## 1
Amino acid sequence: MKILTSTPAGDGFLMPAEFAPHQGCILIWPHRRDSWQNGAYAARKAFAELITIIAGSEKVTVCARFEDYDEARRLLPDNVRVVEMSSDDSWARDVAPTFITNGSELRGIDWGFNAWGGLYDGLYFPWDRDNKIARKLCDLMDADCYDLRDFILEGGSIHTDGEGTLLTTEECLLGRGRNPDMSKQEIEEKLCSSLGVKKIIWLKRGIYNDETNGHIDNICAFTAPGEVVLAWTDDKNDPQYEISKECLDILEDSTDAEGRKIRVHKLILPKPVHITAEECEGLDHMDGEPTRTPGERLAASYVNFYIANKTVIVPQFGDENDKKALELLSGLFPDRVVRGIYARDILIGGGNIHCITQQIPAVSKT
Ligand code: KQY
């Protein structure tokens, strides 16, 4: 593996859309006891169910700590690769490389990671194991690696359409905890030179009370070039209404890099989900992430789905809107089977299915 200091776009590389073909997917086995209740027991079951579905249509690699390796190996199907790797937590979307391609070669980007805001408003300390994962995975995948550790970015804060357009939020990328010394224009230039995009659509804020500072992947996602789903509520008394309406107005007023108007599909949210006292009891205190407070609203959203080669896997919350979300997404992904998995145990960790997965784009063999 070579470490590269040139720019991906200058070298002819770009980040494909998630709905383009994948050669694989990466996840990290959960273990952090202040993120996952009851020693991560229930979260591991949910991860295993998700991994089993994804492994039906792409090669899955799971990173597990030394002490968790045997259990991960036992709970996961034989066609899943389990590798030993240290980590601070389990958010592959944010700590694995962002993979880019020129069509025939795969490379990775190693962004800086500071646990969603560093010492300013980050979620745990230290985060140095997580910050080394991208480079280790590039090595494992035999992918040359761009060293962009001087720029703090998590994969959950960007979505691309593979045709030159990127979606993100100001709340996250312009927040003080990431790159406080860079202007909006400098950040745009960095995204364009790294990901091969030409146009950035900036939404203002993400899902209400999202501890990632409003990651895009919980509120809005491309389903095709020129088409997005947007997390939505019709309840004007919900603080989420104003946030989603603001996003809708921006999107409806935007064109993408190809000049297409954006078509917005409203993906209705579940009713507000709050953590219970019993669930909080199951979270252990550690030096680092503050534990949750009973009654705290969790950032539940159906937008946090993963698009695998043959399936789309969507979080379910035991809510009356679960089925509606599956129906809407089935219509938008007619060539894939849309499947729900019960994801409250992932949500308690602070994210969902998209946040724990990182796709590896397919490349054509030369
Ligand atoms: O949503 C994500 N991409 C990560 C969530 C991190 C939460 C840490 N408790």
## 2
Amino acid sequence: MATETTQTVREFQQFIGGEWVDAAEGAAFDDLDPFTGDVVARVAAAGREDARRAVEAASSAFPAWWQAPPAEKQRVFLKAADLLDSRSEDVGGWLTRETGSAFGFSMFQLHFVSGLFRQVAGLAYAPIGEVIPSDIGQFAMGLRRPVGVVGAIAPWNAALILSARSIAAPLALGNTVVLKPSELSPYSGGLLWGEIFAEAGLPPGVLNIVTHAPGEAQAIGDELVEYPAVRRINFTGSTATGRKLAEAAGAQLKRVVLELGGYNPLIVLADADVEYAVNAAAFGAFMHQGQICMSARKILVERPIADEFVSKLAEKTKGLKAGDPREHDTVIGPLITESALDLVRSRVDQAVEKGAKVLAGGDAVGSCYQATLLADVPEDSEFAKNETFGPVAAIAVVDSADEAVEKANATSYGLSSGIITSDADRGLVLAQQIEAGIVHVNDQPVGDEPQMPFGGVKDSGFGRFGGTAVIDEFTELRWVTVTRGSHPFPF
Ligand code: ADP
């Protein structure tokens, strides 16, 4: 759907070697507003040759950036954080225009990312090794050095956070980066960082950003995986794409960090505060219209409070406003594309045909899908088996905490989870049994802080973004020795 607009269509080039450049073949593609369908920007449409130029620029910039004093690295990130803060209105507007992000989610992303930049500024001063006692009299060290060029592939959904975290720690640790944003958020999940980091004083070539048209991701991904100077790939996106990338990277013996899909359970125990549990469940399921890898998809409630919880959650769900994400009281903005909307619709319709009950929502409104609660979703429905990126959650009633845990773990995914209970000890015991990289006791599954070890298990991927774990992900630990004088050899 296209509407009248006064918004001018911006033109964006790619960012390679510190320059804003057209794609080698001069192509460009349309960047669309998911709510209105308007073209918001024309963006350079790169091919494999552009990716190669970007990797070469990153590779040339690596030695000097690695050796740059930590104070310089720190200054860049502190300045970038201030610059982002000073542009919050403009950047928030872009998140809405490119990804349909409502006001609250945009503000959360902005706050998270300036915090992330301030935290990684300190990484420049993280100790880079240890001295290890040697039985043969050597002066032995475990020394870390940056890996070289890092390829970063980011998605559109939490465009600002997920692109920022794909570049921040790698750069702060002395690597150089080629970022490939999603074709659906080339500016707010990509090119924006070229503007901010150039102004913050990052030297040319240290960060490069290659944008591509829909359907052209693989060529860029292949170049990142196959070019020898790229030593790590980090990827956030679907499990299907992550699996392909990991296979290709495996053939090149390259390490990857993968944060993939989720089918996140929210367990509500009988001792929960029902009002709190209802608010937590609605937030966990419907924030950013359920297009978050951590969104609560499966709500498991213990029978003694099930009737009250379900009726209150259904009532709250029906009251969530779907519509224009520019209006500050909108909770449910548009789904990212028409095909995403079609997929959600077809999964809900199929579950209903197979016997699921609709407790709230269940239909599309323009480019939005209503916040939807389903009950009795059959196990053989597509919705039950696959992550569905939309504002739809399935509720099931359970007879015990053990049954809840068993149902929570009955998925190939393992990203995030929540257990609402007023008994923290019991919650902690159950947390140990949940097969997920993230468990929140007395909270829902959606949440992030830059210093936390964020990541999944099973089909949700491996490796960790955030916290000190990034030091292992984005540096090489090497054994370096010094022999004083000489020692005898056996022959
Ligand atoms: P989502 O469904 O969340 O958009 P995708 O896995 O399709 O997840 O997309 C996440 C990121 O992966 C995007 O930047 C997209 O362009 C990129 N991507 C998609 N296919 C490939 C591929 N074959 N190789 C490399 N990157 C890809």
